Amino acid sequence: MKLLITGAKGFLGKNLIETLRAESSHEILAVGRDTSFDTLSGYTAECDFVFHLAGVNRPENEEDFYKGNAGFTEELIDSLSAHDRKVPILFSSSTQAGLNNAYGTSKRMAEEKLFLYGKENAVPVYVLRLPNIFGKWSRPEYNSVVATFCHHISRDLPIRMDDPNSILRLTHVDDVVKLFLRILEKGITLPPGEFVTYPNSRIYETTLGELERLIRSFRDGRDSLELPNLSDPFTQKLYSTYISFLPDDAFSYTLDAKCDARGSFTEFIRTPDRGQVSVNVCHPGITKGNHWHHSKHEKYLVVSGTALIRFRRLSDSRIIEYRVSGEKMEVVDIPPGYVHSITNVGEKELVTLMWANESFDKERPDTFPEEV
Fold this sequence. Notes:
Radius of gyration: 28 Å
Number of helices: 8
Helix content: 25-40%
Largest sheet: 6 strands, antiparallel
CATH topology of the domain at 2-130: Rossmann fold
CATH superfamily of the domain at 2-130: NAD(P)-binding Rossmann-like Domain
CATH class of the domain at 2-130: Alpha Beta
CATH architecture of the domain at 2-130: 3-Layer(aba) Sandwich
Number of strands: 19
Shape: elongated
Strand order of the largest sheet: 9-10-11-18-13-16
């Protein structure tokens, strides 16, 4: 299919286009603010489906709301009609279309023009009144408060928050694009003039203050090594969005390696519910460990070098041994209640990735020395 996409260089348009390029073979006819009328006319003469995503939401003059939203929509419809092109149109409207401000009114006028086009030409018109959208490639101070907070907090810039208890209804751009593509592929049967209902399951409700707290916790996680609880869909998507806003010189950060004559031990990641990941470096001939835990369970994965891992049940003399190396990815489980050690039996440094089901707590280390 030939897909005409207005607002092609905007936040939503870019996400849709890149998804289509990666996952489909449709031909994309991209329309941006710099697209000439002649080019738009050529596209409307041959397109099979229109994603009408163009719009103005923060103009310098109020009249630009009507020019950029209702006016351009009328121009698009007139161009389709001039070529007698009767094709489905999907329009990204806004929940503000139900309000009586200039932006909402201009969006509502655009909706009415599109519904009339659909009725007169007996073609589907899909109008989605979308909540605030967040995600990668959004613009701070323009697309959403999420973009603004992520940009400013990642750079230690001040943010303005009039009412921290203000309720936000948000959805992620990937979820919007998935719905767009499902409509493209399967359509939706709707009575003329009826809106597409955006799924409540894809809308996340929070407050302005909670949004700020979460994003600041992502920034502070660089120091504490804490990852947020990514089992929560909103937190997972917000965290990914925050990472996409990091400055070019801030994608990397150093870790605190605890070094001694034996090698080093470096914590990498901590989580509130999935434990801790660390990197253990051990010089040739050195043994580490020789301790046991009450409740802590560990997994050892040697990624470089050769190790002899030995453990035994507490108060039992029988020793279990595993010889492992970086040449074969093999995980060794260390259960609680077992005394255990790891020895570098190779000729080069031993590097082991270690996971523990509990993050280390210096107030309750749950680590008791004893020789294997």
